[in-house]
Write a structure and sequence with these properties.
Blueprint (H helix, E strand, L loop, with lengths): L2 H29 L11 H41 L1
């Protein structure tokens, strides 16, 4: 493994950590009351968290796909401009 691989792994780890923290914070704020009533999640809370995580990941996937498309289009435009 070279330095470039290590940098990519570190960046990916930071990205996934940030994603997890945002997802956790967002879904916890939305689904769980600030004053805990019980030790474990209730059925409604568990369902809410499940839906929240699924929606968050689906939106994240769509945004990521759009960003890749834009990057590819930009790269194609740059190659085309350099060829002219």
């Amino acid at each position: 493994m070279d330095a470039n691989d290590a940098t990519m792994i570190e960046a990916n780890t930071m990205y996934l950590t940030d994603l997890f923290q945002k997802l956790t914070s967002s879904c916890m704020d939305k689904c769980i009351a600030p004053a805990y009533q019980e030790e474990s999640l209730g059925k409604g809370e568990a369902n809410c968290i499940d839906r929240c995580v699924n929606k968050y990941m689906e939106v994240h996937k769509i945004v990521e796909e759009k960003m890749v498309e834009q990057q590819q289009a930009s790269a194609a435009q740059q190659q085309q401009a350099m060829g002219q």
